[in-house]
Amino acid sequence: MRVLVVEDEALLSRQLATALGEAGYAVDCAEDGEKADFMGQTEGYDAVVLDLGLPKIDGLTLLRRWREQGLSVPVVVLTARGAWHEKVQGIDGGADDYVSKPFRMEELLARLRALIRRSGGQANPLLRSGALSLDPRSARVTKDGVPVKLTGHEFRVLSYLMHQQGRVVSQSELTEHIYAQDFDRDSNTVEVFVARLRRKLGASCIETVRGLGYRMEGSS
Ligand code: CA
């Protein structure tokens, strides 16, 4: 899972990137609306954290533009304290949720998890596929109830496939959703991570659909 943080306050942006990274997300940051617009339209994000007061293009204008263009990525807007009209404008402008500054990081993370889960069509906060379960709240994976240790990239591959379970996910789509923009992808291909996941979790956990990509079975 990959998240774009759009925030011009450097300290808050760093704090968000750190917290999201620790929660298992690949994170990109944009410090103004113009850069965010470009990144949002060219990269594959699972969610966007969008500050409304931004240089170059303000957050609300950017959000409306994205929605007009059919970009459906879940967006949480960050609003100023007490500015109830910003919440209304944000939601009316196409935001899926909002958090008022100052906020607890835990609350923002919970709202993001919920949005990402729902956009993948998952209602249950605990994702299951066969004997596997993945808890986005703790970034933990178990097989038959036994914890399995995964690297950051392995976790992101598994998390993306489990959020999209039942659907075939192409290699290029998977690649888009597990790496931050500045990451050197050459020696870290998706096939390698899938092979490692199969070794750790069982060969049948991820199905290869020839010529199309990968698929994980749904829980029901
Ligand atoms: Ca700002």
Could you explain how this protein is built, in words?
This protein has helices at residues 10-22, 33-42, 59-68, 84-92, 105-119, 152-163, 171-178, 190-201, and strands spanning 2-6, 26-30, 47-51, 75-79, 97-100, 127-129, 132-135, 140-143, 146-148, 207-209, 213-215. The chain is α/β, with parallel strands linked by helices and 220 residues long. The chain has two domains: 2-119, Rossmann fold; 127-215, Winged helix-like DNA-binding domain superfamily/Winged helix DNA-binding domain (Arc Repressor Mutant, subunit A, Orthogonal Bundle), CATH 1.10.10. The protein has a five-stranded parallel sheet, with helices on both faces. α6 packs across α7 (171-178) and α6 (152-163) crosses α8 (190-201). The radius of gyration is 18 Å and the shape is globular. The model has no long low-confidence stretch (mean pLDDT 94). The site of calcium ion has 5 residues, from loops.
Into how many domains do the coordinates divide?
2
CATH architecture of the largest domain: 3-Layer(aba) Sandwich
CATH fold name of the largest domain, please? Answer: Rossmann fold
What is the count of helical runs? 8
Low-confidence stretches: none
Mean pLDDT: 94
- Decide which structural class fits the backbone: alpha/beta
- Over the alpha carbons, how many angstroms does the gyration radius reach? 18 Å
Portion in strands: 15-25%
CATH superfamily of the largest domain: Response regulator
CATH class designation of the largest domain: Alpha Beta
Small molecules (ligands, ions, cofactors) in the structure: calcium ion
Basic shape: globular
Distance between the first and last residues' Cα: 23 Å
Percentage of residues assigned to helices: 40-55%
Numbering strands along the chain, what is their spatial order in the largest sheet? 2-1-3-4-5
SSE run: EHEHEHEHEHEEEEHHHEE
Q: Main beta sheet, described?
A: 5 strands, parallel
Q: How many extended strands?
A: 11
